[in-house]
Amino acid sequence: MMLKALRNPHIQLCLKAITALSVIGLRPAAGLQPCPAQKDLLAKANVVVEARVKSLSIGESGFQVTDDFPTRMIRADLEIVKVIKGKFTRKEAIVYGTMFPPGPFMELTAMALSYGYRGHDTFEWELSRLAIHDTTVGFFSMNNCNYYKFPDTMGLR
Questions:
Q1: In degrees to the nearest 10, what's the CA dihedral of 43, 51, 28, 86?
Q2: Which residue has the higher pLDDT, 73 or 16?
Q3: What are the C-alpha distances in Å from 32 to residues 5, 44, 51, 74, 132?
């Protein structure tokens, strides 16, 4: 029964996603390497947008794992105000993260709470797309060393 399930392409894709998230999510924490300076991250970024956090949630990812790896994820629904660098044509983006650093979770929470407080509710964010294994499937991650800049008026970094 288990071998039959492992041959299912959807199960295989889920397993690849779990593997990618665990490896990608653990890289900064496991290596204890600090992220480069924000100016360096901005220089290397392909796509940077000005955005608002429409909603922020923490919940089960739906991934099926066999070990004790945490399956909860953070999801930020972004409203794109404008593109600062690169090309991005959509007006919304969803960014995912795991419990591992270096995601700026407190800052994103503050931005979600300030949604609608015009002049104080936008921030700069690098949309860093991660592909899942050798597929065309990917997602925007908040666990990379991404460029971000939050408003000074909020007392955020």
A1: -30
A2: 73
A3: 37, 21, 29, 21, 24
CA distance linking residue 103 with residue 96, whole number of Å: 10
CA-wise closest residue to 77 among 62, 58, 55, 98: 55
The pTM for the full model equals: 0.73
Options 3.90.75, 2.40.50, 1.10.1660, 3.30.43; CATH for 2-154 is 2.40.50
What average pLDDT does this structure show over 26-33? 51
Report d(CA 157, CA 151) in Å as an integer.
8
- Residue for token pair 């794992």: 65
